[in-house]
Amino acid sequence: MNAIAQGIMTETGHDEAGPLLDVRGLRTEFVTGAGTVRAVNDVSLTVRRGQVLGVVGESGSGKSVTARSILRMVPEPGRITGGEVQFEGRDLLALSEPDMRALRGSEIAMVFQDPQSALNPVLTVGYQIAEALIVHGAGKRTARSRALDLLRQVGIPDAERRIDDYPHQFSGGMRQRVVIAIALAGSPSLLIADEPTTALDVTIQAQILRLLGRLRDELGIAVLMITHDMGVVAETCDDVVVMYGGRVVEQGPVEVVFARQEHPYTADLLKAMPRLDTGAQVRLPAIPGMPPDPAALPPGCAFHPRCRLAEDQCRTAVPGLTPQGGKGQSAACWVTGRGVPIPPLDAVPGEAGARAGTGGAPLLQVRDLRVDVGSGRRGLFGRPEPVYAVDGVSLSVAGGETLGLVGESGCGKSTLARTIVGINRPAAGEVTVGGAAAGTPGGARALRSAVQYVFQDPYASLNPRRTIRQSLDEALEMRGVPRPERAAEASALLRRVGLNDTHLDRYPHAFSGGQRQRIGIARALAVEPKVLICDEPVSALDVSIQAQIINLLESLRDELGLGYLFIAHDLSVVRHLSDRVAVMYLGKIVETGPVDTVYTTPQHPYTTALLSSSPAPETTARERDRIVLTGDLPSPKDPPSGCRFRTRCPIGPLAHPERRVCVEREPVLTETPAGQLAACHFAGEMAELAGRR
Amino acid sequence: MLRFLVRRLPSVVFVLLATTVVAFLLPRLAPGDPASVAAGPEATPEQIAALRIEMGLDRPLIQQYLDWMGGLFTGQLGESLQFRRPVSELIGARLESTVELTVAATLLMIVVGIGLGVFAGSARSRWSRFTADATNTTLLAMPPFLAGLLLVILLGVTFRVLPISGEVAVLDDPVIGLQYLILPAIALAVPMSGSIAMLVQSSMDNAWRQDYVDLAVAKGVGRRRIAVRHVVRNSLGPAVVAIGIRFGEMLAGAVVIEMIFARNGLGQLAVTSVQSADYNVVQVLIVGAVVIAVVVQLLTEIAMATLDPRVRLGV
Amino acid sequence: MTTIDTTGGTPESAAPRRGGDGALRRYLAALRTPRGAAGAGLLGALVLLALLAPALFPGGYDEQGSGGLAGASAAHWMGTDELGRDILARTVYGLRTDLSLLLTAVPASAVIGTLMGLSGVLSRWLGAGMQRLLDVILGFPGIVLGMSVVLVIGTGWLALFASILVIGLPLFGRQARAGLQIEQEREYVLAARVLGVRRRTVMTRHVLPNIVDPIVVNAAVYMVVAIFIEAGLSIVGLGIQPPIPSLGAMLNTGARYLEVHPAYVMGPGLVLLLLTLAFTLLSNALNKAVLRK
């Protein structure tokens, strides 16, 4: 193993100084009552000076434990049981705890996933940055002035004033900048970033990734980036390590690996991702099955149960990582190791013929909907102040078609969905289903039977105390299915979503996330609805599972002629599934139209920025000129006057102070030459700019 | 901060008002005529009638309540039926004893409770954790009166180290006064510190699992500094609130402890007044106890707010 | 699924965690832990002792002998009290009194308090009113409330019962109300509402079962408080009146003879300690097994 790692290193090594970090044969185990779980198994990787290494994998792949093992911060009851972590000539696993503590923060620093919880709520950000210096011997005064510099360096506006603020006074993106400032405090030569942008919106993610790139260029810091997102890897990393079931299955320079994969997992995972630039002509080639439970890894190659190339040898023996493919690339696969190429996947066409005609009379119509989510508590003086999370939204969904709704968190898309199905009450406007207004008693019943909801979190939307049969029975009862027929109906429903009868009498905790989402869909289908409101149904799922659920939703739509209102923050998923798309910003729809038109020729600057911020899993996209929005989403409590987007707009008053109209007049949705509707006084200008580049 | 107080104020005022109504109604809820109870069994009907007028029982209820409330605010607390002395004088004479006891016990409770909790919350070895757990459980299961009796038997009867009965004001003679104070204060405080300790321990356990502790480790901060700056700081809020809530129990416990250690405090006065249906005294004591309990609770909530910027700055 | 990557926590195996198995089975699981078993065993022994009191001491609690305040002897294992009555017999009968209070007043308090906390379901105004009422009760320190009760209805078993009941109401009411607020917003509750399941069915099927668990744990915790209330009121002479024994009442009289007859308070004191210990252990075990997933 070591020899191989060495070989890879020399082969890759275009820098003479040797690697900054060299992990060899790392093993980390968790001893639990149920047995020993080997979360990290014989992992070797190398980070070169000033370079960015991406470690990518799905949940349970061991990527985060690997990162924590390097800093010897494995949570209880985890133990590092083997291997070496060479950092600038020292084996970190052999250091004493005080030496290790001196190294943490000063030579290797870490950025965490969730900036919400990573900062101590009762200490000022200035103190928390300064502490990183004080514990390594700096004086209080120098620490504070350095903290101020760091805040400026990571782009916190008005740093002098904000240094004494508490974390809750910052937005999510700003908090992550503070966490990065803390990491930079000791001028480390290696930064370990554990999913640094997963908890953030795309436009904020773009800001943070740009910041990390800038730091690498300016300060020469090497970065070990842990992520589940191939797009982030493609756009920010120099090298990539792909992990699966606690092992490295493939590694190499990003350009080489994305051009040609040597491990079937990497290859199929990339194919299973929906793309920003192609629509839904074909089904996604999903990887069957699910990522393995680290407590019960399959023997041999952990990927073999899901692999289309698997042979007998794969089932019994673990393949080693061997150099193959392009320069610096290596993979752990018996089949491709013999030089067998990975055959292209057969494209599964969508059942285009079977697809019920889209269009026709809209089943669900929403007109001028406004929703007040204010606390209802009276202000100090007089009436309660309304907070409109949804402020005048109109849309319609016809049978067999999908309307995609995209927007960042806090834009009101979930509130809109919940109001449509009657969980929240509208303050104004109406929801009509097949002609009947949902506000009336008869309409409410029509709504219940015609419109159903699929929740984002498959763990929270099933009652843990009730079996799947009980959950489905409840829904069937609502449809009026007599008791004796329910068993047959329930098993038919489960088969419909790709599960079977044996699952009926189990409790939700026995299922994986993807399976639970299937159950959630089955429950929604039980009342034979005509429209499904899908609220981020795949965003909590692993990439390989996500493709399965997307395919399921597509075939259900096409076979049953269902209409979908599909809500997501992931633009490529929306592109793949939708016929039409609506872009929402701060309670209002800013652009809507046919999905291809909106994606190819966006007319609203916000749409343009969203598309530009979404990372694409291909290395060619790195060179494109990105539009990164500044600032954060304003609060719906106090929306900006005129155009709500003007405070972040790259072509609005920020860039052109003479454009008073954006401040004074609210733009309305109007038809643009390209065909879609956009609410912008200068619609199209952005597209022209982008096109000229 | 101001907004926090403004938000809390209406419910505090409501509780206090409702308490005065309850206290006012108590004698009238009891079976029998308060006047005849007050006059005693040998009183003649004329004496009772005279007492009725003296107690104002012949006027409308609202009027009586307003008069009584007016008395509370002006310090005209009426006269004890039992001792035939002004209530304010009776209370004034016993106030110091009870204040000394509760203040000493509260200080002890804070020191022991938080100390033990922080010890249990930072203990790493199996042994120290077990010891801390066992101590907490024992303290929790130990009611103040039992602790008192045990202390009396152990230190007062068996070894005769400290006085177990009576008192000397600490202000008059600090050395002797403290000797008299020490056992009752321990008896009152130690059991309640068990629950404070338990709370501190569990919120510290919770704090150790937070991401900000990981971030601090990644910064290179040592375990001790993490414990002091990050964990304890975040765990004291619930403890402070609990101390505020416990303060009411502290007053209640003082009643029992005064009985056991024969201290002539307000608790004793309350008990004898209840036994002899001395309504005028009991009413004032009830209102007083509730006011103090509620005010202390409000104060601790303010203290909590200063500990936690999220509350202070109003999220 | 594992959570290693996202939370850095311990990997969970697919072993069943909190299942849909009935509430009773989860409570029984709590009793199988060391703490739970110790608590249940201790409580069981004490209840058995109390039940057997008439058989063990056929003379009852009020049989007066010749010598007052005698030390331990073969006839009186713990000696006799000031009236020459057997202290052991009186202790066991006192335990009987205490248990008869605890096992009726605490459940009554839990049920009524929970209903008060849940009353907001029926009408928002009723719920707010109940909340205010509970706030007022909470403002009263325990013994002060007990004194008020005694002032109105006089001393005795009933006053203790009422005191324990009323003092517990805010504890259970607030717990129920908080639970209701959390459980009503669960996604599976929303899912049932979207399906059109009737409000009442949603409540009984999806909401209430999850509110009951913390109430049961709280009831076990409150048992200890109730013991303190009985003993506290009795010690100061406002509880059970002679000649009927209760643990607190015996401590009251025994405290007068501390110097001459320490065993007088030690007997009832020890039983009281065992009783509180039993409930403390039980509530700890229930808390761990039922509330922590």
What does this structure look like?
- The complex is a heterotrimer of chains A (693), B (315) and C (293).
- Chain A has 25 helices and 24 strands.
- Chain A has 693 residues and is α/β, with parallel strands linked by helices.
- Chain A has an eight-stranded mixed β-sheet, with helices on both faces.
- Chain A is globular and about 75 Å long.
- Chain B is mainly α and 315 residues long.
- Chain B is 79% helix and 0% strand.
- Chain B is built from 13 helices and no strands.
- Chain B has helices at residues 2-29, 34-39, 45-55, 61-74, 87-122, 126-140, 144-158, 174-208, 211-219, 223-260, 266-275, 279-307, 309-312.
- The longest helix of chain B is centred in the last third of the chain and has 38 residues, at 223-260.
- Chain C is elongated.
- In chain C, 48% of the residues are buried.
- Residues 1-21 of chain C have low confidence and may be disordered.
- Chain B: Keywords: Cell membrane, Membrane, Transmembrane, Transmembrane helix, Transport.
Give a short synopsis of this structure.
The complex is a heterotrimer of chains A (about 700), B (about 325) and C (about 290). With about 700 residues, chain A is of the alpha/beta class.
List keywords for this structure.
heterotrimer; A: 693 residues; alpha/beta; 8-stranded mixed beta sheet; 33% helix; 20% strand; globular; disordered N terminus; B: 315 residues; mainly alpha; MetI-like fold; 13 helices; 79% helix; transmembrane helix (chain B); Peptide ABC transporter permease (chain B); transport (chain B); transmembrane (chain B); MetI-like (chain B)
